Amino acid sequence: MDMVKVGDKCDEVAALLKVLSNPGRLKLLCHLISGEKSVTDIEQLTGLSQSYASQFLSKMKSEGLVNFRKEGVQTYYRITDDRVTEIMKSLYQIFCKENEL
C-alpha cells in the first residue's frame, strides 16, 4: 500500500466521509444500494420526512454521489458513485453480516 498516495487523498476522503457521516444519509444509502428508488419509497423505507429526505438527496446529488430521473411526477434516485457502493458494502460486512449467522 502506497501511504504517500493515501496521504495525498486525505482531503478527498474526508469530504466523502463527511457527507456519509449523517445517520439519515447512511440509512437512505442502505436502501439505494439495492437499486433505484422513488422519493416516496425512500420516505417509507427510511421513515424520513419528505423534507429531510429531499435535503439529504440534494446534498448527495451536489456531491456527485447520487443522481435522479423524473418519470411523470415521481422522482427516482440511484447511487452513481462506485466508491459509495463499495463503502456501503464494506460497512455492511463490518457491522451487519455477523448478525445473519
State the gist of this model:
With 101 residues, the chain is an alpha+beta fold. It is built from six helices and three strands.
Spans of 5+ residues with little confidence (pLDDT < 50)?
none
Number of strands: 3
Total helical elements: 6
- Average pLDDT figure: 92
Name of the CATH class: Mainly Alpha
Could you give the order of the helices and strands? HHHEHHEEH
| CATH architecture level-2 label | Orthogonal Bundle
Rg, alpha carbons: 15 Å
Sheet with most strands: 3 strands, antiparallel
Question: Which outline best applies?
Answer: globular
Number of domains: 1
Distance between the termini: 32 Å
Measured as a percent range, the helix fraction is: 55-70%
CATH homologous superfamily identity:
Winged helix-like DNA-binding domain superfamily/Winged helix DNA-binding domain
Strand order of the largest sheet: 1-3-2
CATH fold-level topology: Arc Repressor Mutant, subunit A
Percent of residues in beta strands? 5-15%
* Class from secondary-structure proportions: alpha+beta
